[in-house]
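Researcher: We plan to redesign the surface later, but first we want a full-length starting point. Tokens attached.
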């Protein structure tokens, strides 16, 4: 690309950036390039490669445009929201500052919407569930449509129509009430924006699975007295699919007799190599080759499909173990093996 003075106005942003970098001192250029994304660097590199020569007038025009842009940007000390938070308070007289800022903040609190977007919708719903329906409606209206839709998925199904009706009738929310709602959500959930996944039922079931059977049975029995559904969910997940690699050959063979072939393929798709080989070892050579071929043909499948298949087979193994048809050594019971 040979450029002439008249062509400088037709240069793309990437071409202007390439010319500017070539013009700058190497040390300065290096510092700038370090700040760019890989795709941006590649685009600038390609633009440089297409340049044969550049007229002095074009270089001057590119540099002058850059300086003008830099000057214009420097006049704005920060973004609008940052300005009203950090600069505007010092520009207002003390007698009216609090009232004006409070009203401005309420009407421009995009930060609250962004704050809620980082929270698990289930946690926000749990916080709102004990509130009056009118308060729930107001909170949903304040957090933005996207957040509200996520949170409503975890509210009581029977109450959602009433909450929706109340939201639709809300035209204004008193400032003090809006402040209370936003501050309540911030204060309760604000200290835990960086949520670490701890697994819930899944990880708790694994804790039970690592206890001796007599102990986890006592725990599950006590839980069942209060919440049988939770006890059953924990029991089903005490063993994960890869634990089945610890079954002896007879146990795996007994399990295979009751497992659907397609379900086994889906479960093995997400299994560890050791688990796969334990199952292959206990299949006929022909059946093992058939499943290996199926695993190659099936291609990528959704994690949820794999998890469902693995959970079904693991639950079946637990049932056979409880009936005494197979021995499934899990958790603390492994220590008893000799």
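Model: Full-length starting sequence:
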């Amino acid at each position: 690309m040979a450029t002439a003075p008249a062509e400088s106005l037709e240069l793309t942003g990437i071409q202007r950036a390439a010319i500017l970098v070539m013009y700058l001192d190497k040390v300065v250029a290096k510092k700038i390039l370090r700040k760019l994304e890989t795709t941006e660097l590649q685009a600038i590199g390609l633009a440089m490669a297409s340049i044969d020569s550049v007229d002095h007038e074009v270089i001057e025009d590119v540099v002058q445009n850059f300086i003008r842009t830099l000057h214009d940007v420097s006049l704005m000390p920060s973004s609008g929201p940052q300005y009203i938070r950090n600069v505007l308070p010092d520009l207002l007289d003390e007698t009216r500052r609090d009232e004006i800022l409070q009203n401005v903040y309420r009407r421009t609190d995009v930060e609250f919407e962004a704050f809620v977007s980082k929270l698990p919708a289930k946690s926000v719903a749990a916080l709102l569930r004990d509130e009056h329906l009118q308060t729930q409606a107001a909170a949903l209206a304040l957090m933005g449509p996207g957040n509200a839709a996520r949170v409503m998925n975890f509210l009581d199904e029977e109450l959602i129509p009433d909450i929706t009706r109340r939201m639709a009738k809300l035209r204004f929310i008193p400032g003090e009430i809006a402040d209370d709602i936003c501050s309540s959500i911030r204060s309760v959930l604000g200290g835990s924006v960086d949520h670490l996944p701890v697994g819930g039922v899944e990880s708790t079931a694994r804790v039970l699975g690592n206890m001796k059977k007599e102990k986890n049975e006592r725990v599950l029995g006590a839980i069942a007295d209060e919440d049988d559904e939770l006890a059953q969910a924990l029991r089903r997940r005490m063993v994960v699919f890869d634990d089945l690699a610890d079954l002896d050959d007879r146990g795996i063979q007994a399990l295979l007799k009751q497992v659907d072939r397609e379900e086994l393929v889906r479960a093995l798709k997400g299994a560890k190599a050791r688990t796969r080989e334990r199952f292959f070892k206990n299949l006929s050579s022909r059946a093992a080759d058939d499943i290996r071929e199926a695993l190659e043909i099936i291609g990528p499948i959704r994690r949820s499909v794999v998890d469902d298949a693995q959970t079904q087979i693991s639950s079946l193994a637990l049932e056979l173990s409880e009936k005494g048809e197979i021995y499934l050594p899990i958790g603390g019971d492994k220590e008893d093996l000799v």
